[in-house]
Amino acid sequence: MALTLTLVTGRTLAQAAAMHKGKTTDHYAAVTRQAEINGEDLAELGLAEGDEATVRTKEGEVRVTLKVSDLPRGMLFLPMGPCANVLIGVDTEGTGMPPFKGLSVEVTP
Amino acid sequence: MSERTENVVCTFCGCLCDDLVVEHEEGRIVKVLKACANGQGHFREYDPSPRLPRLEGRDVSWDEAYSAAGEILRSSRSPLIYGLSSAVTEAQRRAVELADRLGAVVDSTSSVCHGPTGLAMQGVGEPTCTLGEVRNRADLLLFWGCNPLVSHPRHFARYSTAKGRLTPEGRKSRTLIVVDVRPTAATKAADIFVQVEQGRDYEVLTALRALVQGKAMERPSVGGVAREALVDLAERFKNCRYGVAFMGMGLTMTRGRDLNVAELFSLVSDLNDYTRFSVIPMRGHGNVSGADQVTTWQCGFPFAVSFARGYPQYGPGEFTAVDFIARGDADAAVILASDPGAHFPRKAAERLREIPTIVIDPAESLSASQATLWLPTGVAGIDTAGSSYRMDGVALRLRPFLKAQRPSDEEVLVRLIEEVIR
What we know:
The complex is a heterodimer.
Chain A: E1 3-10, H1 13-21, H2 26-31, E2 34-37, H3 39-44, E3 52-57, E4 60-68, E5 75-79, H4 82-85, E6 101-108
Parallel strand pairs in A: 1-5, 2-4
Antiparallel strand pairs in A: 1-6, 2-5, 3-4, 3-6
Chain B: E1 3-8, E2 20-25, E3 28-33, H1 37-44, E4 54-55, E5 58-59, H2 62-74, E6 79-83, H3 89-102, E7 105-108, H4 115-124, H5 131-137, E8 140-144, H6 148-151, H7 155-160, E9 175-180, H8 185-189, E10 192-195, H9 201-212, E11 221-222, E12 225-226, H10 227-239, E13 242-247, H11 249-252, H12 257-271, E14 276-281, H13 288-299, E15 305-306, E16 313-314, H14 321-326, E17 332-336, H15 340-343, H16 346-353, E18 357-360, H17 366-370, E19 373-375, E20 386-389, E21 395-398, H18 409-421
Parallel strand pairs in B: 6-7, 6-17, 8-9, 8-13, 9-10, 13-14, 17-18, 18-19
Antiparallel strand pairs in B: 1-2, 2-3, 4-5, 4-19, 7-15, 11-12, 15-16, 20-21
């Protein structure tokens, strides 16, 4: 089962706290690969909270841990950081800003 | 015996909260009062102990480090100076001077946060105000594409819900409206949450502009927002006493980028035909606003500036760091007080690891851990001095309360400039 979702990245309190402890720590790596997903999308993937999934774009793919939140259906949220950045391209459309929000991603168990 | 310093400024985010109390003992911070979770981390996790620079994995003396930095910079044909936003204004001036001396490109983290906001300002202007006006006058607050309870956790308490001169009831004196693509802590604290479909902000803003101007709307919804909700918003905006819009990455990082921001700024301009309305970008890094100010007064442009031809040239999309690095145009980089290794798209972050980099940062960031040379500096407002610009453009002085055991960013940059002109 594969789902096409819209990726939104952003700051979280846990990501900020882990950043202060050190970006070279395992804790920071774990926090920044903690993805949020709508519960119905998670069920459609046949997965449960805490399971891992692969998220893929043409730029690359990562394994993330899934956590249910009240996101709208069709959206995947990842904290800003090295994990999300594997998925983000460098086409800034002449502005300097990469597409950190609104990227189409494929999610598979 | 611990000492207590009051009215300490936190430089983690653009709020620059200036009312913190810090207790310190024998050169170490032991307690921080009034700070948010982000501010606590900023102060409590900083180790002010002296630390030697690290060159290619080994500790070296500062003289050896400056000499190595000079060699890297003198042998570069197309260097990039990037970051600036957590450094003080005085260091930012030196960073621009270094770029000028080198014929380098200089860009700040603005290009990956509010760079599109800068482009929008240049297009349609910025009807703005100070946070003091927000606290004392605003009775309607609109937060669009930002989550202050996570990114700027004390913003609500210090400005949006605080009691002010004309807002004596604090939170009760104001209407809080949050527009976002997903429920967040901020949307839950709002009076009205407007949920927009991801990537449809521009359409919703255009519909609001039309409604404010008295035009009829035939479609039942725009961007996932019902017509009735949009009509209600437009009326609230026109009929408030003093409205302020705050905007964040939800607009600048989403499809449309600067066009989204320009549409919001234009809506705010339009609203001044009916009432008083302003807009303030929610700036992230403590002095990212200062980076725009300094680069503008030094070069005429807020970010993405190249000195390669001997005079400043402006080029968003060309001299912005992600583009410049990913294209392979940079052959060396000085990274000041920022962490592109953690926050740039992988292709740009990997390309950065292929060229010599000099990282000036108090902490061992990912960029510092991967750098050719890491120069560990002090933190302004803790053990070094300087000034920073709050998100509303108000400059604050940062006074150190610990004795400096490390050089400041400015001192390091002055030494780099000396090495370059040697």
